[in-house]
């Protein structure tokens, strides 16, 4: 996936407007639009600002390293949850793992 498309997808996933991103990063809104459309390159400082705002590593935004991104996304998702809600997430993850293990055992038979 191209950098601009990846940036747009992350921004939209986080439900952020281009204007909000511009206000928080100091990058003009028109530049955000141009970057996402692939008609403007961005420098390393701009990429770093977007990485921080989007809470994604620069390597992920560049498409270089998706390793562990699911774990990072899960960690970001549970940050503001209560202790009880986080415990529920852990129980659900354990359930999913158990279900997947059970399904794999069935397929081996």
TrEMBL record:
CDD domains: HTH_XRE (cd00093). SMART domains: HTH_XRE. Gene3D superfamilies: lambda repressor-like DNA-binding domains. SUPFAM superfamilies: lambda repressor-like DNA-binding domains. PROSITE patterns: HTH_CROC1 (PS50943). Residues 7-61 form the HTH cro/C1-type domain. One of its GO terms (molecular function) is DNA binding. It comes from the Bacteria. This is Helix-turn-helix protein. It comes from Actinoallomurus bryophytorum.
